[in-house]
Each structure stands twice: as structure tokens, then as C-alpha cells.
Amino acid sequence: MPIIELVTPIRAPIERCFDLSRSVELHLASTGETGERAVAGVVRGLLGPGDEVTWRARHFGVWQQLTSRITQFERPGRFRDSMVRGAFARFDHDHLFEADADGTIMRDRFDFTSPLGPLGRLADALVLTRYMRDLLVERNRVLREIAESDRWREFLAKR
Length: 159
Known about the structure:
Blueprint: E1 3-10, H1 14-21, H2 24-29, E2 37-41, E3 52-59, E4 62-74, E5 78-85, E6 90-100, E7 103-113, H3 117-147, H4 152-156
Antiparallel strand pairs: 1-7, 2-3, 3-4, 4-5, 5-6, 6-7
């Protein structure tokens, strides 16, 4: 079972980074290549404890749906989203935040299991782990860019 770990330094306060990381709109802004949409559950705003969202996106040329739930939540230090339904056998995505002298260190730990046993493990090794890493790196790039600019207000404005 692959585990992807990323570390992203961000020159912005920890609370801003934490909240942007749970913004449905920011998630959508970072996934333009897949045509991703939130289609059920919390479809806009900030995800919180116990919230579910169903995403619809095109991966490998196929439209898929995946529902995840916020299963751990400790603002502003960490939260976890876990797959409830979708193409993976399972996944847990830990979002960890630590304040430092320059702003925030954001860490991702994406732990997943593909379906189909040995075939799934082969797909992980050949394609899926790199594909998922690239998606997470792009998401973090967009999050950092927005957090470090004035654009963060577009995503965290009071509703």
C-alpha cells in the first residue's frame, strides 16, 4: 500500500493555510485538468468535522465519483479525509500544519490501497502513485500561491 508524503512551506499564517486546505472552491481551482466538480454533500465553503463531499472528475479518460468524509479535525493543526465510496479500496489523507518562523509547514500524508489485489499493486507501481503525487503537488502549488497572495480572501470570505 503506497504512502505519498509531501512537505510544502507556505509564507502565510497557519490558520489561513488550514482553512484554505479544507475549502471546496480551492480544491476545485486546483483540479482544472480533471474537470472536477463537487456534486453532493458539502459542495461549497469549508469542510468541517464529519462533513462529506462527493467529487466527480475525469481520471485516465473515465468519469468517476469519490465520496470522502472528514474523520479527524483539530484546527489549526490537522485534519484527515477518508474515502467512504470510490475507486480505491481505501484511502486516508492526513493534512498536517505546523507554524514556523516563515509561516507554515504543510505536510500531506496520502495512504491508499488500490482495488484488485496484485493488479492494483502493479498499477500503483507503474502509474497510480506518480499520478496521485502529481495531483497533490499541483493542489499544494495552487494553495501556496493563493495563501501567499491577497487571493486567499476570495476563498475564505465570510458567507
